[in-house]
């Protein structure tokens, strides 16, 4: 590609003079490489300006938060200002976090710029030979042009003398000069071709090197831009979560709640004012009595034991016409009232938490774990392991430590938990838990998808789980299910090829198996078992390697050692038997079972978005359906046509794979 910039095509014709750029192709390529440094600096400036914009926006949102704090505390609308404050604070944090990510990206760009300078310096040193070849070619090009012009001039002079009939002596002299000019021109051509060959070789190597540098530069720049895009996308997701949380908070605070909260905060008390009664004037007395209001309470009310006792103090003034006894009366009143003993407030009950098996701090990142479990169903057509239908169904579950429920309860504004699914391009269908998850369907990247929790629904779910099993150390929440369908045998971790031969009453079956490292290269297949059901009249049974025989259910069971895709594990199973009569029914079907851990067959993975939570563990496991030991004899026999997989009916008939053992081989005799 870069060779087209250098004028190499003119080397085939040494008489064609260098025009245009005059062998400046090397300079064009070199300066283009240097322009990469300018592009890096400009990208850093652009990102720095974006970081400044995000910082300004964050400060503006902080000002809005202060406005909400300074909102009037009077009236029933006052609690709503707290919702605005929390939302503004979170938005400020979102944009502040984006500013920090932009600054981190600027450091990455600057680091790449430093590496770029070193590469360019090294390249300049490596290109010294090319520079010399270019200069030599330019010098010899000038010499060639002069020799060409001198030769043409001498030839023209000789022709003129011949036409004019000049003296013989001058003709001889002109012929000698023309001959020398021709020799000089030929020597210049020879030197030019030699220098041109060296130039072509050096320029070809340099052009290839320039192209490699430019490709690496563009890849690195695209990677930096991808980081820029992902940072903005993460922030947009977080902002969407904040807006969703704000909307939920506004909806959750009803008008009745606002009025009730105002009444609780501004109320002056629930007790009716006591009544003063005038008795006799002979003495001062204090009477203690329980008050019962017939309009609200009755003698058999459930609240009698919880309500505090209420006291009425009735003052009967001393019959005296003077004011001299007022001090004594005050002292007597204080002494009398001070001797009263009030019962404890039984209306306030202690909650024991008239303990969690995991202690979590509200300041540290809260741990969660995830589990990806997949089940594979596959059908193989007889002896052709490359003819197979594969279906993978999976589910994603997230686990929460029991201590997190206490933190959720203690924090009215719990940070939103969000996560991202990656490597989703192979997934055909998925079904999220609509009660717990939100998602933005407008996300453009088909390989990733972001979700965030309905935190109120999550708290309710975890609280319900805690009530059902209070001693559990963690609680699970099912998040989504998905499905992968394919006719690619590479999607199956174990490839099977079977053959069935019938000769009279004798039936022979063989099964070849080998691991497919492309699916899960680092995962061993464990608990590998092969099941072969036989006819009820089968006798003289022989098998290699030996298998266990279940006479009641009439089936053979091979238990194989662990299979490793990295070692290209493979093997062959054989069995033969004789029937009392020639078998006329369809050939039997082989069923295979295995388990793998540490990887997912679909390739899907999960990661958290944000820093308030941390992923402590992602457990991956895949398996083949139900346990072989619980299956009856007839279930494993599936009736399939000789040719399948091409019609709509065939596809529909395979929709019930989940209820059977997962890997089947249809034998053709």
Automatic annotation (TrEMBL):
GO terms for cellular component: clathrin-coated pit; clathrin-coated vesicle; plasma membrane. It comes from the Eukaryota. Keywords: Coated pit, Coiled coil, Endocytosis, Membrane. Residues 365-631 form the MHD domain. InterPro entries: AH/BAR_dom_sf, AP2_Mu_C_sf, F_BAR_dom, FCH_dom, GMIP/FCHO2-like_FCH, MHD, Muniscin_C. It is a peripheral membrane protein. The keyword rRNA processing does not apply. GO terms for biological process: clathrin coat assembly; clathrin-dependent endocytosis; convergent extension involved in axis elongation. It is found in: Membrane, Clathrin-coated pit. Residues 3-258 form the F-BAR domain. The keyword Membrane applies. Belongs to the FCHO family. This is FCH and mu domain containing endocytic adaptor 1. It comes from Scophthalmus maximus. The lineage of its organism: Eukaryota, Metazoa, Chordata, Craniata, Vertebrata.
């Amino acid at each position: 590609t870069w060779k087209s910039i250098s004028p190499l095509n003119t080397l085939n014709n040494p008489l064609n003079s260098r025009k245009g750029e005059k062998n400046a192709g090397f300079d064009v390529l070199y300066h283009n490489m240097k322009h990469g440094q300018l592009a890096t600096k400009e990208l850093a400036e652009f990102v720095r300006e974006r970081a400044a914009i995000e910082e300004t926006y964050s400060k503006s949102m902080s000002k809005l938060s202060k406005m909400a704090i300074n909102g009037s505390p009077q009236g029933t609308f006052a609690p709503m200002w707290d919702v605005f404050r929390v939302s503004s604070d979170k938005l400020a944090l979102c944009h502040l976090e984006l500013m920090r990510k932009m600054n981190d990206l600027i450091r990455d760009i600057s680091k790449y710029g430093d590496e770029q300078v070193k590469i360019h310096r090294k390249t300049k040193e490596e290109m010294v030979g090319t520079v010399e070849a270019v200069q030599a070619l330019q010098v010899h090009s000038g010499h060639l042009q002069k020799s060409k012009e001198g030769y043409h001039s001498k030839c023209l002079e000789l022709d003129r003398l011949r036409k004019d009939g000049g003296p013989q002596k001058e003709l001889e002299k002109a012929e000698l000069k023309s001959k020398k000019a021709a020799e000089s021109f030929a020597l210049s051509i020879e030197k030019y071709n030699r220098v041109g060959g060296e130039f072509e070789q050096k320029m070809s190597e340099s052009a290839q090197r320039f192209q490699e540098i430019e490709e690496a530069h563009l890849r690195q720049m695209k990677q930096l831009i991808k980081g820029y895009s992902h940072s903005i996308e993460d922030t947009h997701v977080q902002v969407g979560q904040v807006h969703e949380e704000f909307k939920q908070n506004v909806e959750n605070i009803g008008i009745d709640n606002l009025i009730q909260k105002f009444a609780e905060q501004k109320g002056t008390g629930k007790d009716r004012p006591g009544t003063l009664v005038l008795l006799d004037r002979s003495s001062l007395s204090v009477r203690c009595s329980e008050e019962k209001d017939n309009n609200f309470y009755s003698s058999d009310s459930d609240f009698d034991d919880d309500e505090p006792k209420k006291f009425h103090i009735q003052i009967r003034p001393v019959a005296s016409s003077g004011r001299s006894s007022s001090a004594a009366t005050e002292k007597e009143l204080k002494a009398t009232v001070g001797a009263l003993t009030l019962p404890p407030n039984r209306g306030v009950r202690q909650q024991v938490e008239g303990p969690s098996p995991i202690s979590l701090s509200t300041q540290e990142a809260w741990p969660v774990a995830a589990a990806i479990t997949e089940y594979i169903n596959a059908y193989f057509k007889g002896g052709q392991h490359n003819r197979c239908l594969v279906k993978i169904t999976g589910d994603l579950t997230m686990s929460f430590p029991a201590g997190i429920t206490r933190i959720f309860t203690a924090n009215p504004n719990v940070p939103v938990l969000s996560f991202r699914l990656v490597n989703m391009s192979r997934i055909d269908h998925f079904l999220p838990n609509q009660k717990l998850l939100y998602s933005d369907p407008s996300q453009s990247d088909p390989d990733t998808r972001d979700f965030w929790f309905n935190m109120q629904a999550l708290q309710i779910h975890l609280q319900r789980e805690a009530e059902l099993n209070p001693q559990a150390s963690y609680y699970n929440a099912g998040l989504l299910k998905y499905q992968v369908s394919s006719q690619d045998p590479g999607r199956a971790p174990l490839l099977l090829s079977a053959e069935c031969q019938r000769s009279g009453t004798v039936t022979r079956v063989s099964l070849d198996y080998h691991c497919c490292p492309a699916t899960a290269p680092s995962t061993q297949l464990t608990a590998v078992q092969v099941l072969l059901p036989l006819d009820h009249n089968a006798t003289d049974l022989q098998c290699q390697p030996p298998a266990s025989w279940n006479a009641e259910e009439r089936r053979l069971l091979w238990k194989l050692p662990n299979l490793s895709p990295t070692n290209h594990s493979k093997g062959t199973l054989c069995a033969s038997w004789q029937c009392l009569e020639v078998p006329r029914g369809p050939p039997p079907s082989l069923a295979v079972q295995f388990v793998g851990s540490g990887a997912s067959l679909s390739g899907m993975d999960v990661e958290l978005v944000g820093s308030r939570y941390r992923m402590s563990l992602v457990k991956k496991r895949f398996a083949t359906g139900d346990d072989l030991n619980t299956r009856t004899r007839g279930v494993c026999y599936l009736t399939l046509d000789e040719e399948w997989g091409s019609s709509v009916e065939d596809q529909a008939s395979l929709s019930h794979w989940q209820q059977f053992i997962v890997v089947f081989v249809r034998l053709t005799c």
